[in-house]
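Q: For a teaching handout, I want to show students what a protein-ligand complex looks like in C-alpha cell form. Below are the inputs, and the small molecule is SN-glycerol-3-phosphate. Please produce the holo structure.
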Amino acid sequence: MKFFLDTAEVDKIKRFADLGLVDGITTNPTLIMKSGKEHKSVIQEIDKIIDGPISVEGIATNAEDIIKEAEEFINWGKNIVVKVPMSEEGIKAVKLLSKRGIKTNVTLVFSAAQALLVAKAGATYVSPFVGRLDDVSFDGIEIIAQIKQIYENYGFKTQILVASVRSPLHVIAAAELGAHVCTMPPEVLEKMFKHPFTDAGLEIFRKDWDKANKIKK
Ligand code: G3P
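A: Here is the structure, written as C-alpha cells, with SN-glycerol-3-phosphate included.
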C-alpha cells in the first residue's frame, strides 16, 4: 500500500520522507493556505523532496479551464497529478487529459456511483473522502469496499486513493480492503507509531536494566 501525505507543510514532508515512508503527496487549496506559502513555489519545494506523484488542485470548474490549469500545473514538477473535481465537466476534462497522458486525481468523491464514472473516464486516481462521510454518519470505509469490488469486477486501472483520513483506523481499514493508496495528514502517520504498551514496555525494560546492573555491582 502506498502512503501519501495530505499536506503542503515542507518540514513535515521532509521528516517522514527521511524515514522512507512517503510515496507521494496530495494537496488542495485549503492545505496550500495552511502552509502559508504561495501555490507554485511550495509545490516546487515539495518536488525537490519527493520523487513520487504530487497532486495539485486548482479552482476551475469547466472542462476547458480545468485543462488550462492542468497545462500549467504539470510544469511545476516532474511527477504532477492534476486534481479534478467530481462533476460532468470534471469527467469531460479527465477523459481529454487521460488521452494526452496527463495524470489525474478525481477529488470530492462520495459514492461508488461517482467512482464508477471516474474509472470509465480513465482517471489515474479516484479520491473517496472517508472522513467527511463519517462526519455526516455515513460509513466512509463502506464505499471503499464497494469501489474495490466494482473496479475488480471490470479490471479498471484507476487507483483507489483513500482521502479525508482522520485516524490510523481509517488507514488499517483501507489496507485491509486493499486500497492502492492512503493519503493521510502527517499527524495520522505520527499516531501510527504509537502504542501505550510500547512506551510502558520500554520503561519497564529501562528500569529492569538499571536494577540488573545494580545487582552485578
Ligand atoms: O485532500 C483531500 C482530503 O484528504 C481532505 O481531507 O480532512 O479536509 O476532509 P479533509
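A: Two things your students might notice: The mean pLDDT is 97. The pocket of SN-glycerol-3-phosphate is lined by residues 6, 26, 28, 129, 131-132, 163-164, 183 (CB under 6 Å).
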